[in-house]
Amino acid sequence: MSSLEAAAGYKPSRTLPIWAEVKRQASRRRTQLALGFMVVLPLIVLGAFEFGNTGGGDDDGDGGGAFSSIADLATSGGLNFALFCLAVSAGFLLVVVVALFFGDTVASEASWGSLRYLLAIPVPRARLLGVKLTVAGLYSLLALFTLVGTGLLIGTLRYGWGPLGSSIAAELPPAEGLLRLLGIVAYLAATLLVVAGLAFLLSVLTDAALGAVGGAVMLCILSNILNEIEALGDLRKLLPTYYNDAWRGLLSTPIQTDELAQGTISAIVYATIFWGLAFYRFTRKDITS
Amino acid sequence: MSALTDRLRLTRRRVIPAVAAAVVLAAAAVWAVRPAPESWTTEDLRLAGEGGVELDARFYLPADRDGKVPAILLAHGFGGSKDSVRDEAESLAEQGYAVLAYTARGFGRSTGQIHLDSPDHEVKDAQRLLDWLATRSEVTTDSAGDPRVAAVGGSYGGALALLLAGQDQRVDAIVPSITWNDLGRSLVPGGVFKKAWAGYFFGSGSADLSALAALTGGGGGPEREGPAPDVDPACGRFAEDVCKAYLQMATTGIPDETTLALLSRSSPASVLSKIKAPTLLVQGAVDSLFPLSEADANAKGIAAAGTPVKVAWFTGGHDGGEGPANDSDRVEFLTLQWLDHYLKGEGDTPSDDFTWSRVAGFSATSRDLATNGYSAEAYPGIAGTGTTDVAVTGPAQPIANPPNGNPGAISSMPGLTSRLSSLLSGGVAIDVPGQHANFSSAPLTGAIDVAGSPTVRLRVASPTGEAVVFVKLYDVDPNGAATLSAGLVAPVRLTGLPADVTQAQPVTVTLPAIVRQIEAGHTIRITVATTDQAFLSPATPAVYTVAVESALTLPTLAGTPIGDPGNLWWLALAGVVGVILLGLLLLLVIRRIRHRRRDVTVIEEHADTPLVVKGLRKAYSDGFVAVQEISFTVQRGQVVGLLGPNGAGKTTTLRVLMGLTQPTAGEIFVFGHRLVPGAPILSRVGALVEGPGFLPHLSGYENLKAYWQATGRPWADARFEEALEIAGLGDSVHRKTRKYSHGMRQRLAIAQAMLGLPELLVLDEPTDGLDPPQIAEMRRVLQRYATDGRAVLVSSHLLAEVEQTCTHAVVVNKGRIVASGPVDDIVGDSPSVQLDVSDVPAATRILEELGVRSVKPEGPSGLIVDMNGTPRSELVASLVGAGIGVDRLVPRRRLEDAFLSLVGDNSRGSGDR
Q1: Which residue ranges does UniProt annotate as crossing the membrane (chain B) (predicted)?
Q2: How far separated are the first and last CA of chain A, in Å rounded?
Q3: Residue B172 has pLDDT above 80, yes or no
Q4: For chain A, how many structural domains are there in total?
Q5: Interface contact A5, partner B, CB < 8 A
Q6: Average of pLDDT values for B267-279?
Q7: Interface subset of B 456-485, CB within 8 angstroms of A
């Protein structure tokens, strides 16, 4: 008995099962609030549109409307409503939510002091990060799909199921439009990898959850600000948020894909670097929390 | 550890990583935008033109040229100067050409008047510049006075290049872009004056006046024929004949003989047959000033003379600008290929293939349209390689011509370089109701790739026998949104018309050449309008009747996509993902190999020992040594106390023991297995280190459950009930831990450490926060726990606690072991006692008679007595018997004094544990 390498039933690869981590996070108020807000936001947007419409009559129905902006088209159908919800969230809300899921996950365990007990189980450090990363990713995807799903549902209930109007090209039939919308969701998910990578790295480097989440959001804002400075020229292409708007290419006919690919490359490379650094650091550092 | 590593670690600890990242980013930015050493030199010159005109010029020379280099004469567009072609000049100089950029006469700082690329003025100026180039020692010459030179330019400069090549055989190649063939036809297409463009350019030639007045205010040279203060305000810097021609044309709308003659002299059309210099013609498809048909006419004329000519179209022009990046890249590539071959003799002869581009979608980053390039084997002209006929229908309709053409339809916005998206997929074009007739097709069954000039047959009736109409082709999407591709219209002036449309003879109208894919499901609409704000239409009101013959002929062109960059990026993406996956796989393989090779040998002699610590040392990166050297052993059945003041290194030792911290030196064996961070053997150890750590939003019960789930071990092994009993939290176990008191958390943490009844239990200050009854209970629990071959290691800074709980003790101070062994040996009774007596000298005497080893006085009434085996009762009896009062007798313990002094000395400010 005494020469056993580990306690009975212990296997490194079975420690901290994904499902256990999902439950750890699910019971947290911030997870519930973040996901809840993804449901509430489309409702607020709907309310805002309804409020704005009570005064005047319905001014839809002019033929040239197909070329107006995403906001003007938001009430033209469920697809457009969901698209609008995505478009208004992409720049900041989704960044914050993803930074929250990825930035909070390790740092909060460190600040509670529970991280050292997980490591003493022992959950191998790489496995701990891997599971944390996977679960944060799952929650981020869940948030994204909750937002789109809710937008699609209440948009369709209120404005009906119709073609996806685009500010750039002609209307897309509903089936095609839904595919495009899913494509946009996929691309947004890819660009959010940058935030995910950054927040996760900071989460590993600091014991303060707020520092990790806030730091990631702030660096994203910094990148956005630099992106506005045209004097930087081609240098801006190196900014992690440079390609964030490329999803609009999915609204044009035919689809403009090269920037989608460039944006995805940029996001994947950044995420790989950040995650790589996170793993490198975490598997070597002294846990002092 | 070297000093360097020390410093690095120090930095890493202190500087917020985000700041480090920002610094790296900033450094990268500075590095990237640092001024690159220029690879060319410049020389600002004032060169003599024809007739005493002074030309403002800048001569660029490649810095690293090897011997003589060919030259390029770079001419600017209308209203520009040598500075407006600076970027192009620099990039050509970088490619190893001597570039002479100059300001044409009548513009910028050059003197003289604008003669519209007249062969007698501007073209002769350029010839003088060729003479000058031939005198430069840096420039390659073909023979004396004949430099190896190409003329390059756009619009006004492009026409100059063509006219120069037609007038001077010294020119070896030309690259004219977005320029005209026949200026008369360009400004008065179909006999209708293009007033918006003409006015825009006339204005820009005049507007230069004030700037020039300021420039020459300091006193121009006597030979300057340039604007004197008394310059005619109506003509600005235009030469008198040019000015007159404009005024005549703009007033009547129909150019007279003189005007036509002047425009004709300024048109390359007349000299095309004399051009021997190989010509690359670049023309824009979004250009309502010089449409594709102008380049087509130039190409045909030059080719007829047997001169090599190549044509390329791009999505841009006077309306659309330089076009998307891939278009300007393609044009730059073709230009260099052309120049390199015909000037430097480098590279194969450029092939005859024809390249163009078509809208491919919307680029979100440039917020405008993106295009794809296509190529065909040969230039097809503007009639396409094939045609598709589309039937358009509609009854004959009356349309009104309003007086003075107002209100007028809008097709393009001359002079305002617009976004491509508004010109190619937007709704700039507006028709005025009552002034236009529509003739629509059925929705297309398949997409048509139009490239060239569509033709349509029109019948028009007018009560005056004359009519000016504007014919347009709209691409109408299924929602009814109509796009006038590139804002191009065909103006037509018709005469000799009948009053009744049934008697009208059909006339064929050639629409401007467009490049556009009209998608399936879209309809094509031919609109015939009476007005257009860009043109001068008749002032007299009239009502025409128009009808369109059924067949609309669309020229089509099939091409091969030029390496679609989009696909390349997807390939690159696949590559990146592949590389990352490969790297990940490699890492996993390496980890697996390392895992296999890791030291799994069991040290047999320790195999049954729960814990062996050997020579443990931990130095932190800031130089603080928390643990100097600690070695001890925990055997089965023992409760070992790690005793020491705060800061002695107890917690650091335990942290290393839990795999949280890497030791600097030394090794730890748990049941003979070497302990490293994350070693599986840790699963046989239960721990409470540095206080409890719970998820505050879960109850105590849920926390224990979550913890056990994280171990991945079978539920039954947890021994949950026993642990809960030890915690003794009662119903509070279902409250959230954030509401727990310190003691409750402590008990829950001990329970958590005991989950699964690990064979070695490591507890850091377990009684911290517990009240005395709980402490007593905890002692019993720990002593019970250490039966059945289990062992417990407890750290504490309280001597009494160790004494009462532990079987063995290890006393540490300042990172070193001071004493170790069974508690009885260490903290048991020592042979001496402390006595407080009423009479010290008498007591001393009596005690010495009893045969004790030593008696030392301590204080006014105290004595320290080494008993040497004499029972304490005997000692007290003797003293009392001798009438000496005994106030107090305290057995002394061996380590007590030493330990208490340690704690007293070290409990403050001893730093990080």
Answers
A1: 568-590
A2: 34
A3: yes
A4: 1
A5: yes
A6: 92
A7: 477-481
